[in-house]
Amino acid sequence: MDIATVIGLVGGFGLIITTILMGGNAGGFVDIPSVVVVLGGTFAATFVMFPLKTIIGTIKVAMKSIFFKSQDPADIVRTITGLAEKARKESLVALEKVPIEDEYLKKGVLLVADGSSEALVRSIMEIELDFMKQRHRQGQGVFKGMGMLAPAMGMIGTLIGLVNMLQNLEDPASIGPAMAVALLTTFYGAVMANVVFIPIAKKLEERSEEDALFMQIMIEGVASVQRGEHPSVVKDKLEAFLAPALRENS
Amino acid sequence: MDIATVIGLVGGFGLIITTILMGGNAGGFVDIPSVVVVLGGTFAATFVMFPLKTIIGTIKVAMKSIFFKSQDPADIVRTITGLAEKARKESLVALEKVPIEDEYLKKGVLLVADGSSEALVRSIMEIELDFMKQRHRQGQGVFKGMGMLAPAMGMIGTLIGLVNMLQNLEDPASIGPAMAVALLTTFYGAVMANVVFIPIAKKLEERSEEDALFMQIMIEGVASVQRGEHPSVVKDKLEAFLAPALRENS
Amino acid sequence: MDIATVIGLVGGFGLIITTILMGGNAGGFVDIPSVVVVLGGTFAATFVMFPLKTIIGTIKVAMKSIFFKSQDPADIVRTITGLAEKARKESLVALEKVPIEDEYLKKGVLLVADGSSEALVRSIMEIELDFMKQRHRQGQGVFKGMGMLAPAMGMIGTLIGLVNMLQNLEDPASIGPAMAVALLTTFYGAVMANVVFIPIAKKLEERSEEDALFMQIMIEGVASVQRGEHPSVVKDKLEAFLAPALRENS
Amino acid sequence: MDIATVIGLVGGFGLIITTILMGGNAGGFVDIPSVVVVLGGTFAATFVMFPLKTIIGTIKVAMKSIFFKSQDPADIVRTITGLAEKARKESLVALEKVPIEDEYLKKGVLLVADGSSEALVRSIMEIELDFMKQRHRQGQGVFKGMGMLAPAMGMIGTLIGLVNMLQNLEDPASIGPAMAVALLTTFYGAVMANVVFIPIAKKLEERSEEDALFMQIMIEGVASVQRGEHPSVVKDKLEAFLAPALRENS
Amino acid sequence: MDIATVIGLVGGFGLIITTILMGGNAGGFVDIPSVVVVLGGTFAATFVMFPLKTIIGTIKVAMKSIFFKSQDPADIVRTITGLAEKARKESLVALEKVPIEDEYLKKGVLLVADGSSEALVRSIMEIELDFMKQRHRQGQGVFKGMGMLAPAMGMIGTLIGLVNMLQNLEDPASIGPAMAVALLTTFYGAVMANVVFIPIAKKLEERSEEDALFMQIMIEGVASVQRGEHPSVVKDKLEAFLAPALRENS
């Protein structure tokens, strides 16, 4: 699934660079000071926006968006149905020895095997879900913030260029190139915001919703197992979370 | 109902093309590289925004927006009232053999016939409703995302054109046409966003709300049937969901 | 109350037309193709946005915004207090014969007179309230959509005009008038959006909130009557919904 | 507290007028037809947006924003703690004779003294709080609406001016002044929106939140008094609503 | 953690000033009247927007954003687990003598030691949490308001400059510099909004969420201690609030 992010980034920058090369004037689109003021200004304002640890945490989160290996929700349903069967045949305590890959599901099952009340298990699992969402929202927030700041910094750079140009109108030949350079910061800001920052913020949001869905399936599944519901009821219930479409394409 | 989407798309593009033809310069509005950078850039950034399977799922969802055959809510009420009558005359188990077209309603009725508790039936049906909404939101999100990206890509294309033009002001005669070409990407982005992407996102939202309404009627209806309520009470209750206006025009 | 809508529309267009006439060049502001592309494009995209039956329903809803006769909330309180008195003196069954003008209140009272449980009456009345709100939201949505599309279509028209103009710069004398015509679509879009579509969407929202308030008063009132509360308690309770200001100006 | 509104309005207009006077061309900023189209158009569209009685009610609400005398929340806590003491020493009925300045608190206390159930008192008080909020939202809505309409009307005025100017380019000397006049409507719209309408809408929102806080304190306080809680518990509970900062600066 | 804010502000202004100096025309970017109209206008409209005491409170809140010393959430969990142990070994009353640094936690523990009911303790703690959030929202609101007003005041300043310039087009040599000065207010407004006001509003929001998280941990922790839950259960429950990532980087 990481392929989509890579294809998108490569394709987006590829198209823009190709368009520039077709104009026959690629050199005119590279201006290091303009890059520095847009990206530097965006990062500086991001530091004012977020605590240092949120920004560091976001780097990890962004990596996840590219190298994330998505779980198959049908697998989760199968695992939990298996647990329900074992719990009915043997006992809730027997679940303790079942090897479970997913850390979150494992924690819930261990709480059940320990004999915790259903309300306690659900409460612990829901708190973890809520705060997973909140942490993901922070990561999305950093990218959304940069997506808002990059065009603003682009505009600030263009204003600096325009003011400089307007105060030196003696040489008419220099007006065009000066204005071209002034527009470059707006261009950089628009590209960074619309090809990188805003789309990655959105992908993190999608990932977070997917994770939340999986965790909700696990919460309901663990509760069903604990109540000793029949495996086929458990399956019916959990498959309600899955659209036919989702299963076919996963 | 798919007619409105078709009329709208044909009418919108027809009007814009007619206006262009009236200007007597239709050739000046076709520029393949501009089309490529706007549409290609929009799709590339959409790939960064959404997981591959969400994008694939969206294509199906968009087809639905055009070829969807809407149910008549009055029909649903009639079907459920019929079930309520049968349940009172015979028994809940007898519902198992009633042929029901709608998959969702059928699932709920089978759960009732199987003797599941009211809370379980409602919980399974509500989970399916919630996740139907969530999946639809994703499809709308893809079109909303493209509706936001297309004008941005249009602006990026125009900035590339402007920078190229400003660095070649020697030939005054070329300035006008160069700027005209630069504006084309903005034009393409605005048309794609406002005639296609944003309106289709909105139609998907409308469809999703309609589906959700039908499913809510079915949830309440199945619960009423299960509680053995009198068919006329069931009818009263379910018709509260339907506005007179909705019935007349359905 | 429809007077405000009429005054506003007449006043808004009157002011704009007067300003144009004062410029001594009214003919320059009329361009039929520009009107067609802006209004036609807006309606076409609206057809993509909404199902046909929602659009048809909206026409009725807009009429309501102009010819609506608002109820006096104090009247509603008085009617319900009267019902509470009758219910205490005679019986709930006696309410069946009381003539009630408002369809919604009548339905609730008949349910009470029929001996339905309080929960059922409230549930039916609340479902109707929720779906009244949802239907009104759709009507507002159509006008909000047109308020968003009109300026976009205006911009698309202006871009067509600019591209045409920029490709024909040979005759300097034609540049000014050509650009003037190009700007007309932006002008039309801005006027339609800000004088008609957005304000009417807002008025429909206000009407919907008012209707919802009246229906909430009726729900609470019917419940009080059913519980046999003392008429003075009913009055106290229902008047909490009414601000002194609302009563004085109603 | 009304001082802030007055300082802000005088300061804002003072600064803008001073800046204009420093340009040595104050006469060029006064254009009566421009004022009329911006303000008139804004008011006309506001009439389409809101029912007449909402607009009239808003005038009173705006006056409140300037001449409002804020209550001291510590006073409210003190008053309610006093009531709790009296209720414990004497009886709930004795509260009837305590003089209470605030109408809302008085109504709640009288209901308690009359022996109404706790649920009824809370329900009446909460309904009044909810509808106070809704009425205030309407007042804010009118100012928010005008804050959105004023720049739009400014843009419409500027478009009219530009179209007029572009159709009369023969005399180059008149282009500058004509464009200056065209920009005035945008200027007026921006000033009205950003110095008057949007800030006042925000202040009304702040006031509404403050009122709601006071009313929530009163609801909890009246409930505590009715349950016969110890005055020191009542004080502890109600002071949780007050930040140290709020108390220090009130 | 205050380091990020300082780095961001110094870095952002440093980059912008360096870019200006590289243009070799730094003097052209300083215009005192422009600074006065943008900042003064922003502050004036802020006074119309907010009550005086909210503005004063915001200054303190902003200081906090820079000099704030964040608590370690793991410390909070450790403290509460310690309290749970003490409560089980000794008694709830014994908690009264435990020295607790955090004022909020201390208040909750003292209420428990005093023998208040669990519902009362939770209700007092939650009210304080809700109103902490509301006060923080006000502080963020002031900065958000200034972030919206600064660019608007910049635009108003630019409009004044443009109108002045357009009415004095006789001397072509003065047009460039006059327009440069006119653009300065837009430049100042964009810098203040995007480097200072909007980012600080966001940081305050982040801080508020962090504080709220800590307070929620304390509420759940105090409730667990009061119910006499086993310290290891308390630890399990509270650690669900903490992401592994959060613990590692705190």
UniProtKB/TrEMBL annotation, chains A, B, C, D, E:
Lipid bilayer topology: Multi-pass membrane protein
Key words of the record: Cell membrane, Flagellar rotation, Membrane, Transmembrane, Transmembrane helix, Transport
Record InterPro entries: Flag_MotA_CS, MotA-like, MotA_ExbB_proton_chnl
Example GO BP: bacterial-type flagellum-dependent swarming motility
One GO cellular component, as annotated: plasma membrane
All residue ranges annotated as the MotA/TolQ/ExbB proton channel domain in the record: 100-213
Pfam families: MotA_ExbB (PF01618)
Family: Belongs to the MotA family.
Name listed for the protein in its UniProt record: Motility protein A
